[in-house]
Write a structure and sequence with these properties.
Structural class: alpha+beta
Number of helices: 11
Strand content: 15-25%
CATH class of the largest domain: Alpha Beta
Order of helices and strands: EEEHEEHHHEEEEHEEHEHHEEEHHEH
Radius of gyration: 27 Å
CATH topology of the largest domain: BirA Bifunctional Protein, domain 2
CATH superfamily of the largest domain: Bira Bifunctional Protein, Domain 2
Number of domains: 2
Shape: elongated
Length: 446
């Protein structure tokens, strides 16, 4: 390991010798002094070097100081350097109140002088050079936030005895429907990329796992170019037994999100305020709930007609319901519940007293849907009949229906898009900004 101190740790150290490394963000080469802003994965610090412009035969150290001065003068933006110097605390230094006086500087990897992207480059251009785009403090913070959020989710589940599973992404048959499905050759047969782990996380219920979760890739052959769609995305899924209704699922779901937001606020709240310019709000449970029929009426009363024939909320409808939740409940989250059976998949349980409605919900956050959850139908005869009503052939669902023929408890769960949560949490305009390497209809590289 190369000996170095992470820049974020410098402020807590006393004045004295220190070793740091990172990439060059800016260089100010003045006649008598040189300043370099050096950034590593944890932060930035100012380097200062009293410039030596000519050699002095009577000074044995002058040649090395001259060499350091010349190296700094020719540093290109983005070059990686390793510096040994002296740390000094000085409140006059705007960047963190500390600086490092350069003793020795090694150019570990020189960058080309012309940088292919700038701060005002288009999003597509920045995605072409994603490894450079990710160097920015804002991008770095996005993925530190993601790490903290995922860790908090996992901790919540593990503390409650959930089992983490890793389901296959190659499937012999579609996980939900044949729409928006990637198909590929698989030896002498055909395979499909999983749209969700739905079938397999349900399989864990008759297997006796009780409660499971997974955070993993999912795939949808969706040709959309919107700010919230991707062909490959990270799905956050959970499923657990012994639920009495979708209310049990919603209660767990909101507790999970409160836990995740609190963890992010505790660790990065100040930095999010500094970098993104807003105060991250930890939500308060319970989130408001509203049946879909009432949500439709609220949207209609606001002067908007939902164009979808099935009556499901479109993006503008979601924004209006989110505005209603914010205005009437002071909440950025709202559960829209009790979806029509015509809208939902065959495996969603229907109301005991009204089979036209399902025990299901969508969760809307800051104006956009981030998750769908439901109580599942666990009675095999009812499940089979609902599949037939949806035009499906039970013979093609044989291995899935087998789960319910040998004893299975009532259960439910949800699937949630991680990138959508991050996008809306950090008030970013597109999931492309919060996805490490985005995949869409026209993007397979880098």
């Amino acid at each position: 390991m190369i000996e170095r101190t992470r820049i974020a740790e410098l402020a807590a150290l006393p004045d004295g010798p220190v070793s740091v490394g990172g990439w060059v963000e800016t260089v100010r080469d003045q006649k008598k002094v040189q300043f370099v802003v050096l950034r590593d994965e944890s932060g930035a610090v100012q380097l200062v070097n009293p410039a030596t412009r000519e050699a002095d035969a009577d000074d044995p150290d002058a040649a090395e100081r001259l060499a350091v001065t010349e190296r700094i003068a020719t540093l290109a933006h983005g070059s990686f350097v390793h510096v040994v110097g002296t740390l000094k605390h000085d409140e006059r230094v705007k960047l963190g109140g500390i600086e490092v006086r350069v003793g020795a500087l090694e150019v570990v990897s020189a960058a080309l002088p012309e940088t292919p992207i700038a701060d005002d480059s288009s999003l597509d251009k920045r995605l072409d050079w994603r490894f450079l785009d990710l160097r920015h403090r804002k991008q770095n913070l996005i993925f530190r936030t993601q790490t903290t959020l995922e860790h908090a989710f996992r901790s919540y589940w593990v503390d409650r005895d959930y089992v983490e599973i890793h389901t296959p992404k190659l499937m012999a048959s579609p996980s939900e429907s044949r729409a928006e499905l990637f198909q590929l050759e698989y030896f002498e047969s055909t395979a499909y990329l999983a749209q969700s782990p739905q079938n397999f996380k349900q399989m864990a219920q008759p297997a006796g796992f009780g409660a499971v979760f997974e955070i993993a890739d999912a795939f949808r052959a969706d040709p959309s170019f919107t700010s919230r769609h991707a062909t490959e995305f990270t799905s956050v899924d959970a499923e657990f037994s012994w639920v009495s209704s979708h209310e049990d699922v919603m209660r767990m779901h909101e507790e999970l999100l409160v836990t995740g937001f609190r963890a992010v606020q505790d660790k990065y709240g100040d930095e999010i305020r500094d970098v993104f310019g807003f105060e991250l709000v930890v939500p308060t449970a319970p989130f408001p709930r509203i049946p879909l029929a009432e949500a439709r009426q609220i949207v209609a009363d606001s002067g908007y007609v939902i164009p979808r024939a099935d009556g499901d909320l479109d993006p503008e409808g979601e924004r209006r319901i989110a505005a209603w939740a914010k205005e009437t409940h002071g909440s950025e989250f709202v559960f829209v519940t009790d979806y029509d059976a015509t809208i939902r998949p065959y495996y969603h349980m229907r109301h005991a007293d009204d089979p036209t409605l399902t025990n299901s919900y969508d969760l809307i956050f800051n104006g956009a849907e981030i998750a769908t959850g439901a109580q599942r139908e666990h009675r095999v005869d009812v499940l089979t009949q609902q599949a037939i009503e949806k035009g499906l052939d039970p013979a093609e669902l044989g291995w899935y229906l087998d789960f319910f023929r040998y004893g299975v408890p009532p259960h439910g769960g949800f699937g949630m898009g991680l990138a959508r949560v991050l996008m809306l949490m950090l008030h970013e305009p597109s999931i492309r900004e919060v996805t490490y390497l985005f995949r869409g209809p026209t993007r397979l590289t880098p």
